[in-house]
Amino acid sequence: MCRWLAYSGSPILLDELLFKPAHSLIDQSRHSTLGVETTNGDGFGVGWYATPASPGVFRGIGPAWNDRNLVNLASTVTAPIFLAHIRASTGTPVQETNCHPFRFQNWLWMHNGSIAEFARLKRDLVLGVDPGLYPAIEGSTDSEVMFFLALTFGLRDDPPGAVERAVGFIEAVAAQHGVDHSVQMTVATSDGTRLWAFRYSTVRQSRSLFYSTDVRALRELHPENAQLLQVSDEARLIVSEPLGQMAGAWNAVPESAYGVIQEGQDLIAGFHPQRP
Predict the structure, then answer these.
(1) pLDDT at 227
(2) How large is the greatest C-alpha to C-alpha distance in the chain, in angstroms?
(3) Residues in Cβ contact with 225 at an 8 Å cutoff, skipping those fewer than 6 apart
(4) Are 260 and 194 in contact (CB under 8 A)?
(5) CA-CA 20 to 30 A from 254: which of 142, 203, 205, 209?
(6) Is the pLDDT of residue 228 over 90?
(7) Burial 142-152, CB ≥16 within 10 A → b, else e
(8) Measured on CA atoms in the order 256, 2, 46, 76, is the torsion positive or negative?
(9) Is residue 177 predicted with pLDDT exceeding 80?
(10) How is domain 3-270 classified at the CATH fold level?
(11) b/e 92-129 (16+ beta carbons within 10 angstroms → b)
(12) Percent of the chain beyond pLDDT 90?
């Protein structure tokens, strides 16, 4: 499986998220405590929005802890939205086109988890992708197919509903092939303005996912922490594993739920796949 983080808030230097925390994503790439694997070294990627319409992406096939270009990038790129991912392959090749986040137009997508017996299901799943979208698929992962199914089912208009329909379609195809417990996922996706995160598995035992406590509440709990004064009230993180041990900072995303980080009131709601 993999580890990831997503940030939305006031513009921040990528280095502050990727390298500086005590249990940063780079530390997790070697010493994951909540993942299926301790080491996540099968590639990495970061995506960011200089403008909502134009996300940048940098991906590499080596381990994140040993990439000098990533260090240089992280020390110079500032943005209000970041998606960062370290990969542990579930069987597909280690190649750049299989590294997350995936991009289509102004949308970014990354995933931790798997579609069970993907090789058996792949043909029928890919046939569910809109023919106009199919040429944009570059890699061979289940994660990218899930992204393009979500796009097919209306991600650009209704993200929660589209992901519910995509997951329902995957579960229906899996049932036709006699595959049980087909979906395991935590997903983050963004259009450059809002950020959505999903936690779900068919067996209802999903991989770990956490969101950060409201910054205003954290300032009251930890008035000595100068870093909390450097970010806006809107700043929020969603992570596979907490980045540190600050008391009161992290909250588990409920099972079978999704959240939206946006200007104003954020939202957490139930996630219910819709089969065709």
Answers:
(1) 83
(2) 57
(3) 218, 219, 246
(4) yes
(5) 142
(6) no
(7) bbbbbbbbbbb
(8) positive
(9) yes
(10) Glutamine Phosphoribosylpyrophosphate, subunit 1, domain 1 (3.60.20)
(11) beebeebbbbbbbebbbbbbbbbbbebeebeeebeebb
(12) 88
